[in-house]
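Journal club side-thread
Mid-discussion, someone asked how the predicted structure for our own chain would compare to the paper's figures. Pasting it here so we can look after the session.
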Amino acid sequence: MVYLIRHGETDGGQKGAVPLNEKGIAQTKTVAPKVAQLGITHIYSSDVMRAKQTTEIINETICVPVIFDQRLREFSGLEKISPEEFERNPEIMLESFNEAFERIKNFLSDLRRDRVDNVAIVTHRGIILTIMYAQKNDQIDFESFNKARLETKADIRNCQIIEFDLYT
């Protein structure tokens, strides 16, 4: 089983290097013992600050190998980001939904190739939604993806654990 975990809460929106706030730290400390009960062998994590902090706090409890992977970064979609904002926040992924979808398909393909099991993936809500969509769809259709995203978005809370069967 794979366990998808959304990072803890922040004060700064969803772009770039935003740290966890006090509530996000508390959420992460609360979820860590629950993650420990899952028998996790590795954590794959976005290398963005809020996901890294979430991973590091969880790993203080479970002490497993951690793999930080840029492919798990949140995506910007088709937003226009100024060069100044990008310079301040180099963790932003400037890409289309199609590029983000291909990046996530590639990540999932690597996990399947390596036959991983009982791992946690600490990432962002948009990436969790993309992982769930990619499991059922070989190609991205923006209208169906956006509909699924809007229907599911509110259901993915900070530090929520979502069971995900990588091999179905």
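Post-session note: Residues 97-113 form the longest helix (17 residues).
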